[in-house]
Each structure stands twice: as structure tokens, then as C-alpha cells.
């Protein structure tokens, strides 16, 4: 049996089998999407906000420097484009499938965690005052809590400050560190620039959220730790650690390669046994032929001996 080499697992040859193997993972992924939609729709906890607390919540209401529609582009589409480029070079459907699945799980698991915490905490954003009182006229009830008269959806978003995470670019950084073998001990420190680039982009986007007064710095810091933690766990489900000798490929590829080698060794053992059996058969046939010839000679000798005895008897 021919050994499977890197690049022999394509979408056409192994795509369907890989998808069937991870069918349950994709179903769980769809459930996470539905859960994320529900968490986005429900209202967060409306925390008590008194007049003295408004001092730190009067930052101007601005639009995002990095628009919301750009988040799926740099957090999902950009990593997938890099995954496709690697697949085009290596033709390994296991690497492509597991990278995409791991990326989706990183983003969705982090999204569910962060949105759950956001709704449970209900921390006001730095620009909450202008969300609550767009005309600048504040009003409070008898307990000192705010009575907002702004847009309902704007106020709702104003209670979702903590935390803010970036898992997609963290997963991409881990993926690239394995592909370029950044920990191969050869001293090519320039590889770190490739690994740190996605983290730099994520950091700049997080800082822009603070500069736009959509988040407190604690929100971005805690969310960054949460996103990197989830991305690391998801990455290690499919790939060895980047510092491992086999960190450049997924576990599934090496498993299939090992099974192929085992099958090839088993086939070679069967061929060797068949060859030995064939040689043994040939040897037995030769032995049988030689033994028949020896007995034939004896029979011929016996017949000739009998003929001489008969002749001598007749003479007598």
C-alpha cells in the first residue's frame, strides 16, 4: 500500500468524510449561533447609575473608528483567506477544515461568554450619559437612579461595556506560529513579526474602542485575556502546541499518516508471509520429485533382480 504523503488529502478526496466525522461539531456550532442571537436580543441588566456616578460616564457619544461591519472581515474572513492560501500550497483538507472549525468555535464561544457576562453585569459605557440623556437634561427617580429618555436601543447598548474580546485574531496568531515554526530553535526571530501582527491589529482595534469611549480600558484588557484563553483552548483541540515538532499540522493528519504506515507495514508482512509460503511449496514439490525418482530407481533395481533370479532358476 502506498504511503499517504502531505498534500494528498484534498477537498475532493477527503472533504465529505471529514465533514461527516465532525457533523456533531457543526451542529453544536449552529446552536452557538442561535444562542448568540438570543443573547444579543435580550435586555442586559440595568445597573443602578446615580448622579455622582455620571462624572465618569459623560464622555461624548461617537461612532466607532473601526465600524461594526468590519469586525467579521478582520476577525473571520481574513483568517479564512489565510487558511485557504495554506490549503492551496499544501492540499491538506484536515488543516483547512480544522482551522475553520477552530476559528468559528473560538469566535462563537468567546461571543457567548462575553455577551452573557455583558448582560449579567450591565456595566454602563463611558458615553452612557449622552445615551441616556441625548438632550443633556438628566433626570433621576426618588432613589437617585437615572430615568433615561433616549432611544431604547441606544440605551440598551449603553449597558454592554464589559468585556470586549478578540478571539479570531488570537486564533490566527497561534495558527501562524505553528505554520512558520516560530519555535524551531533556529533563531529566526523575524518569524515573530508574523505571529505578533494579528495581535497588534487586535490591540489597535481594542484601543480604538477605548478612544471612541465605547469601552473602559478594563473591558478591553479582561476581554483580551478571555479571547486569547478561549482561542488557545480551541486551537489545541485540533493542532499540537506551536513549540511541538509536529506543530505545523493538525492531529488528524498525523493520525491518518500513522494509520497509513501501519496498513502499509501490515500489507508488507502479509506479502512476506505469502512469499515464504510460496517458497516452502516449491521446496516441498522439489523434495517430492526427488523422492519419487529415488523410489523409481529402487523399483527398477528390484525388477531387474527378479528377472535374473528367474533366468537362473530356469537354467537350473
TrEMBL record:
<keyword id="KW-1133">Transmembrane helix</keyword>
<dbReference type="GO" id="GO:0006644">
    <property type="term" value="P:phospholipid metabolic process"/>
</dbReference>
<protein>
    <recommendedName>
        <fullName>Phosphatidic acid phosphatase type 2/haloperoxidase domain-containing protein</fullName>
    </recommendedName>
</protein>
<dbReference type="InterPro" id="IPR043216">
    <property type="entry name" value="PAP-like"/>
</dbReference>
<comment type="similarity">
    <text>Belongs to the PA-phosphatase related phosphoesterase family.</text>
</comment>
<dbReference type="GO" id="GO:0046839">
    <property type="term" value="P:phospholipid dephosphorylation"/>
</dbReference>
<feature type="transmembrane region" description="Helical">
    <location>
        <begin position="66"/>
        <end position="87"/>
    </location>
</feature>
<keyword id="KW-0378">Hydrolase</keyword>
<dbReference type="InterPro" id="IPR036938">
    <property type="entry name" value="PAP2/HPO_sf"/>
</dbReference>
<feature type="domain" description="Phosphatidic acid phosphatase type 2/haloperoxidase">
    <location>
        <begin position="101"/>
        <end position="235"/>
    </location>
</feature>
<dbReference type="InterPro" id="IPR000326">
    <property type="entry name" value="PAP2/HPO"/>
</dbReference>
<dbReference type="GO" id="GO:0016020">
    <property type="term" value="C:membrane"/>
</dbReference>
<feature type="transmembrane region" description="Helical">
    <location>
        <begin position="189"/>
        <end position="208"/>
    </location>
</feature>
<keyword id="KW-0472">Membrane</keyword>
<feature type="transmembrane region" description="Helical">
    <location>
        <begin position="220"/>
        <end position="238"/>
    </location>
</feature>
<keyword id="KW-0812">Transmembrane</keyword>
<dbReference type="GO" id="GO:0008195">
    <property type="term" value="F:phosphatidate phosphatase activity"/>
</dbReference>
<feature type="transmembrane region" description="Helical">
    <location>
        <begin position="26"/>
        <end position="46"/>
    </location>
</feature>
<dbReference type="Pfam" id="PF01569">
    <property type="entry name" value="PAP2"/>
</dbReference>
Amino acid at each position: 500500500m502506498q504511503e499517504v504523503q502531505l498534500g494528498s488529502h484534498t477537498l475532493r478526496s477527503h472533504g465529505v468524510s471529514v465533514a461527516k466525522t465532525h457533523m456533531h461539531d457543526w451542529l453544536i456550532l449552529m446552536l452557538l449561533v442561535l444562542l448568540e442571537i438570543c443573547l444579543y436580543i435580550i435586555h442586559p441588566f440595568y445597573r443602578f447609575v446615580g448622579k455622582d456616578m455620571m462624572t465618569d460616564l459623560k464622555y461624548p457619544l461617537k461612532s466607532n473608528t473601526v465600524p461594526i461591519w468590519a469586525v467579521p472581515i478582520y476577525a473571520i474572513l481574513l483568517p479564512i483567506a489565510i487558511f485557504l492560501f495554506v490549503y492551496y500550497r499544501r492540499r491538506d483538507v484536515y488543516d483547512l477544515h480544522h482551522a475553520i472549525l477552530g476559528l468559528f468555535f473560538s469566535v462563537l464561544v468567546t461571543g457567548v461568554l462575553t455577551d452573557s457576562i455583558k448582560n449579567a453585569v450591565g456595566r454602563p459605557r463611558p458615553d452612557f450619559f449622552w445615551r441616556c440623556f441625548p438632550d443633556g437634561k438628566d433626570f433621576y427617580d426618588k432613589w437617585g437612579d437615572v430615568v433615561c429618555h433616549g432611544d431604547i436601543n441606544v440605551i440598551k447598548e449603553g449597558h454592554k461595556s464589559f468585556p470586549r474580546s478578540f478571539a479570531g485574531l488570537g486564533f490566527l496568531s497561534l495558527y501562524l506560529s505553528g505554520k512558520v515554526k516560530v519555535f524551531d530553535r533556529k533563531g529566526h526571530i523575524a518569524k515573530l513579526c508574523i505571529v505578533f501582527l494579528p495581535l497588534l491589529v487586535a490591540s489597535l482595534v481594542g484601543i480604538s474602542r477605548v478612544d471612541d469611549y465605547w469601552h473602559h480600558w478594563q473591558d478591553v484588557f479582561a476581554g483580551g485575556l478571555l479571547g486569547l484563553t478561549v482561542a488557545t483552548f480551541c486551537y489545541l483541540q485540533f493542532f499540537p502546541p506551536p513549540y511541538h515538532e509536529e506543530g505545523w499540522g493538525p492531529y488528524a493528519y498525523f493520525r491518518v499518516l500513522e494509520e497509513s504506515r501501519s496498513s502499509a507495514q501490515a500489507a508488507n508482512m502479509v506479502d512476506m508471509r505469502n512469499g515464504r509460503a510460496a517458497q516452502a511449496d516449491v521446496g516441498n514439490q522439489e523434495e517430492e520429485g526427488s523422492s519419487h525418482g529415488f523410489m523409481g530407481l529402487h523399483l527398477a533395481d528390484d525388477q531387474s533382480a527378479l528377472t535374473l533370479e528367474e533366468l537362473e532358476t530356469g537354467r537350473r
